[in-house]
Structures are given as C-alpha cells and as structure tokens.
Specification:
By secondary structure, this protein is an all-alpha fold. The protein has one domain. α2 packs antiparallel against α3, α3 packs across α4 and α8 packs antiparallel against α9. The longest helix is centred in the middle third of the chain and has 31 residues. The two termini are 18 Å apart.
C-alpha cells in the first residue's frame, strides 16, 4: 500500500526556489535539455505523450534533489507511467479544449456572418465571451493548482492517475498559502523570462520545476516504509 501521508506548513516559496536552484545548478544544462526535449515531444504528439514526459522530467528532478545521479536517459523512464500520466494530462487539457470549442466556435461563426449582426451586437458578444473566458481562466488556474503534485506523486509513490490527483488536491488544500505563494513566485520568474526577449522563459522553466520539486519533497518526504520500496523511483 502506497504511503500518501503528507506534511503541512512546510512550504516557504522563496526558499523552495532558492533550494531548487542550489540543487540543480551544477547540472542545470542537462536538466534544461531534459525539460526542453520532454516538453517538445509532449507538444508535437498533441499532448498524448505529455504526461509520460512530465513524469520523466520530475523523475530526473527528484533524483537530483534526493542526491542521486541524473542522466538524460532518465527522461525515457516516464514511459513507465504512461497511463496515469495520460489520465492526469487529460484532466489538465480536455476541459480547456472543450470549453474553448464551446466559446469560440460560435464566435467565429458569428463573425463570419457578421453582416447579419449589428456592430453593437458583435461588441456585446465579444465582451460576453471575454468575460466568460476570464472566469474560466481563473477556475482552471485554481483547478490546476490543486493538481500541482500529481505527476511527482505518480513517480514517487506509484499512484494511479485518479489517486495522484486526489492526494495532490488534499495536500495542496492543506498547504494552500504556501502553494499560492510558490505560484506567485513562479509567475514573477516567468514574467522575467518573457521580458528577456521572450526566449528567457525557457531558461527559467528548470528553476520553476526545481522549486516545485523541492516543495513536493517538503510535503512528501522520502518514504521509509518498506512497501513503498516497490516504487520504480524509490527502488533505485
């Protein structure tokens, strides 16, 4: 039986990012390459392999944070968690796709037939769409925040997709202030990356992932339970 116990009140956002950087700085370019290749593969496969790639990425980051050697081949380890990774990815992506189809397909159709709409009607329609879009973005940010630990839980605790999401949501809810603070720090790092000619955002992603992995490890310490040693990660 997997150990899903977690600690509370242990996430200090700025310290997590600082610790993450200290852990990865010697292997920064290796982890940068792992992250870049993994995200590209996930993207070009229409997110079908995104879950597996994110599991492989977090596998590598957790190895580094736990003081174990990291190699590029660790990325391919993510294929061992293809099914649960895909399930979590679907929960991330499908609501966005479905709602955007519901929102924007009618707008595009209305715009194409704009000669049948007055200018005021079209403006009102667009304002309504943007308002719904904004509310949806807020809801999805909250939803995705609850799932922030899902992929590392799959890797570290050998949880199935649903169980990983439930455990992540419970752990995040009980560490809400720390997680929100971490997301705000990540947002600032992302903004700085975009200000650096936009391409800079790619170079801060490993730092963000390292901070998230440190936060995860503070909430879910390395398990000492014998049963957890059957995990593909814990057994190494």
């Amino acid at each position: 039986m997997q150990n899903t116990e977690f600690r509370t009140g242990v996430i200090k956002p700025v310290e997590c990012v600082k610790e993450g950087w200290e852990f990865i700085k010697q292997d920064y370019w290796l982890l940068f390459a792992i992250t870049l290749v993994g995200v590209l593969i996930g993207g070009v496969t229409m997110y079908i392999l995104m879950g597996a790639m994110l599991c492989g990425i977090f596998y590598c980051f957790l190895l580094k944070i736990d003081g174990r050697p990291v190699t590029f081949e660790g990325l391919w380890k993510g294929f061992e968690w293809f099914a649960p990774g895909l399930m979590v990815t679907l929960f991330f992506v499908m609501p966005v796709i479905i709602l955007y189809v519901i929102i924007y397909v009618p707008v595009f159709m209305a715009t194409a037939m704009s000669e049948t709409l007055s200018r005021q009607e079209l403006i009102t329609l667009l304002i309504g769409v943007f308002a719904v879009d904004f509310v949806f973005i807020v809801i999805m940010v909250c939803f995705h925040t609850l799932l922030i630990f899902s992929f590392p839980l799959i890797v570290d605790r050998s949880l199935g997709g649903i169980q990983a999401m439930k455990t992540s949501a419970k752990a995040v809810w009980n560490n809400l202030s720390g997680v929100i603070g971490l997301i705000m720090v990540n947002f600032v790092l992302t903004l700085i990356g975009y200000l650096a000619l936009c391409v800079g955002v790619y170079f801060v992603i490993p730092i963000i992932l390292a901070g998230n992995a440190v936060a995860y490890r503070k909430v879910f310490p390395v398990s000492k339970n014998e049963g957890d040693m059957n995990s593909p990660y814990q057994g190494l």
